[in-house]
Amino acid sequence: MAAPFRVKALYEYSSPHEDDLNFGAGQIITVTDEDDADWYGGEYLDDHGVKQEGIFPRNFVEKFEPTAPPRPTRTRPKKEAEAAHPAEDIASPPPPPPA
To answer: Membrane spanning segments where (predicted)?
Structure first.
């Protein structure tokens, strides 16, 4: 999968290395680089709006695909529906045959 894409942290990751990206569990991260089979490069905005970036282990995250909310169905209010199809426009059933 080519970068960029988003992942969600499964676990907290904290490292003393300056070039590592530290994050808490649940953090959504944009992967910007696939360094190798074990590491991603990525970034996210912290709670203060400051961009955090660095490398982090792939096994701490999973691919994140938010589900789209269901599309609301469009229904017309009853008055609009009646105005669009007045009762007199609706054909009456034919009269019964003469006896």
So the answer is: none
- Tell me the residue length of the chain: 99
Q: Measure CA 63 to chain center.
A: 12
Position of tokens 């490069």? 41
pLDDT confidence of residue 53: 97
Check: CB of residue 17 under 8 Å from CB of residue 1.
Answer: no
Find the radius of gyration of the CA atoms of the chain. 29
The model's pLDDT over 34-91, given as tens digits with 9 standing for 90+, comes to 978 999 999 999 999 999 999 999 999 999 987 777 777 777 666 665 566 555 555 6
- In this prediction, residue 59 carries a pLDDT of 97
Using the structure block, give the residue that is written with the tokens 């955090």.
52
- Whether the CA torsion 30, 32, 37, 38 is positive or negative: it is negative
